[in-house]
Design goal:
The structure is a homodimer. With about 425 residues, chain A is α/β, with parallel strands linked by helices. Helices cover about 40% and strands about 25% of the residues of chain A. Chain A has 16 helices and 17 strands. In chain A, the strands form four sheets. The first copy, chain A, has a six-stranded mixed β-sheet, sandwiched between helices. A five-stranded mixed β-sheet of chain A has the order 14-13-15-16-17, sandwiched between helices. A four-stranded antiparallel β-sheet of chain A has the order 10-11-9-12, with helices on both faces. Chains A and B meet through α1, α2, β2, α3 and α8 of A and α1, α2, β2, α3 and α8 of B. β2 of chain A pairs antiparallel with β2 of chain B, so a sheet runs across the interface.
């Protein structure tokens, strides 16, 4: 099997200022083509550390992908280092130069002379294959050395993604005979990792050696991933299929989706299939549910909008929650979220509505309603259902969990009331 | 200087299913106490790979922090490996056992016998110091070996965070004499990385050897970070101060904040200082601006809410956008976002409003209004200002960039109209 290492370069990764999302993307894409990412290493903007990482990873992997350290500013030392590492010299590449000029003049709309540091982006080692970067000034570079492939990419995520998709993947497929990898991921909610594992005890013990089961818990959900590796993709899919189906049966009461997709996609597909619409009324989740739903392309077909009613007066004026309710039982109450659902159904003219109200912390809790208390209601014109959560985390996680629980509650409501 | 390596364990990191946020948190916290994270390595659930990573990182670093691989399911192999690596044997720790029982009975509310796999969480190597995990069943483990410190933590983010904060940091401070590190980060918007770098050419060349400047571009903003390392924190702060102030002067026209904080915090502080309120009307950003603002604790003091008007009828009914406007110039137009601002000011009764309408892609573009066209308006009772963006990325990045531009436009409007 072809192995890869990913080396990410940049002090910002080591002081924790930047979260590394690039590696996940690269790993996903390589994996689909049959390359197994064996290790990911992050090093700082330190010459010797980068050099050492190259030395070590090439001992382990057939492909070494390097991201970061190619920008136009002085803290970027990767290009000269790569040039020296592979024994080349820096020369101006005319095509890259023309592209840099084009970007500055036509796209960035910055007439006038181009800064020398930007012109320098057109310098590349003379012993690499240049990978054109349509979305930025720093080109990708492909080196063949010591029987290994080294690929250097800029760290800006959308530029790196463009290069992986348009330049890197097909070249790797031409260079290596890839094995096949097939994954199937299903996704459950409502049970912890251990309880799910208990259900799958015999199943897991009975898996053949080339099939692997992994548990991926996140935000109250557990994803289960089956992986099989071999030679022929079709044969692997066929071999995996009965295990994939059996897995779905075993966790059926908790199964949300038999695909690796988010709750917001599951709900979107349910609504599209039935031609129904939805809207949201968010207090404590503050627009996060709306954001999740609208992050799906095409969501305007079923999603009309949200009334983010952070202030009580907005709950009254725009959702019609009664002043008396807010006074007697408060905004964080079953009665309030029920009225929020009713207001949403009426004012947004939707088939389904979901509403949240809670105390996300760190302040605002009381002995009766501690931080983490959340009421959720879902409903249609005939029926409303509610649940109460008692979350016990920090603000960010409480918001995520409240949103995920609300979406899952809505999903179940749609399934049983459609 | 004390160096650390972070080893994260789990196939989910190598197939790109999970983005590693743990490392960033650990790096930040270690950094504050004066520990420099030299490398981060991610390896799969593979015995030999984990073992090798331990062998290598201990050659380089004084502290090796390991996360992941401690869960109750069968794909977790770390604990037995660590036990063997350090030559201990697994024994039941009575305190951990009592804690596991407490969690299942009192917190998770799962009466009945506890699963054997959960009871196993109470088994720890007899040669480690147990670090109690208040938030979960898997304890942290602290090993002293070969003159190095090894710390194993669960991969669940909030459990890992609790252990770092409550157990790890003070123990490290007791174990090592830490050097001091001081960072100052400022944050600019409106100019690219190279243009900012050009402004700072002489400044950067004149920095003393112990002060480092880094450029951290993200979403149309550039963060600039100065770092100084030495012995005495007070002396370092004093030495860094004039460079920090000079840096702010040099980028003054583009300076958003002299701290490492988000636009949503900058705006929150402006509004709190003036006792004003705001609301939002979001079409294309779909609640993401509301989410950013409400992610700040205490935002209810100045944020009243949002009308996420994904459907045109919601723009009409809840924001008072005229049907004629939507028909003649469309939802993605200057006139529509102006009316959305007016509707928000009136219906949410706020001092400032910001509105967005655009086409985020991948579908929905036309020759006149291609994907990436976004109109933004901000206003108060006296005045409204608008800008048009032409974004050229994927849906997710377009949403982020539209939100960031809207927030920055609002910030400037508040500064000049308060």
């Amino acid at each position: 099997m072809v192995n890869a290492s990913i080396i990410t370069i940049g002090d910002e990764l080591l002081i924790g200022q930047t979260i590394d999302t690039n590696s996940a993307f690269i790993a996903q894409e390589l994996n689909k083509t049959g390359v197994w990412v064996k290790r990911r290493v992050a090093v700082g903007d330190v010459y010797d550390d980068i050099w050492q990482a190259l030395d070590e990873e090439k001992k382990r992997s057939d492909i070494i992908i390097i991201t970061g350290g190619l920008g136009p500013t002085a803290d970027d030392i990767t290009k000269p280092l790569l040039c020296k590492y592979f024994g080349g010299k820096l020369v101006v590449n005319e095509e890259v130069l023309a592209h840099v000029k084009y970007l500055f003049e036509k796209i960035y709309n910055r007439p006038g002379p181009i800064l020398e540091r930007n012109m320098k982006q057109a310098e590349v080692p003379d012993n690499c294959t240049v990978l054109p970067n349509a979305l930025g000034t720093a080109p990708g570079m492909w080196f063949n050395a010591d029987g290994k492939i080294f690929i250097s990419l800029p760290g800006v995520p959308h530029e790196m993604k463009g290069l992986i998709t348009n330049e890197v993947l097909h070249r790797l497929q031409e260079t290596f005979t890839m094995p096949a990898i097939v994954h199937e991921t299903i996704f459950t909610a409502g049970q912890g990792e251990s309880a799910i594992a208990e259900l799958l005890l015999d199943f897991e013990a009975g898996l053949p050696a080339d099939i692997k089961l992994a548990y991926l818990p996140s935000y109250g959900m557990v994803k289960l991933r089956l992986t099989i590796t071999g030679v022929n993709k079709m044969a692997l899919q066929e071999k995996l299929q009965p295990y994939y189906l059996r897995l779905q049966e075993l966790v059926a009461p908790f199964l949300v989706s038999a695909k690796d997709e988010g709750l917001e996609e599951v709900i979107g597909n349910l609504l599209k299939a039935s031609g129904k619409t939805m809207g949201t009324a968010e207090s404590c989740t503050g627009g996060y549910i709306a954001h999740l739903i609208t992050s799906i392309a095409g969501s305007s077909a079923y999603y009309k909008g949200s009334i983010v009613s952070y202030a009580n007066e907005v709950k009254q004026n725009l959702l019609g929650v009664q002043a008396q309710t807010l006074q007697s039982v408060g905004a964080v109450s079953e009665e309030t979220v029920k009225q929020m659902v009713a207001g949403t159904l009426e004012r947004l003219q939707v088939d389904y509505a979901v509403a949240t109200s809670g105390i996300m912390g760190p302040d605002g809790g009381t002995p009766e309603k501690p931080v983490g208390t959340v009421w959720i209601a879902v409903g249609n014109k005939d029926k409303t259902a509610t649940i109460k959560l008692s979350l016990r985390f920090g603000r960010e996680r409480n918001i995520h969990l409240a949103a995920m629980n609300a979406l899952n509650f809505l999903r179940k409501f749609i399934l049983t009331n459609s």
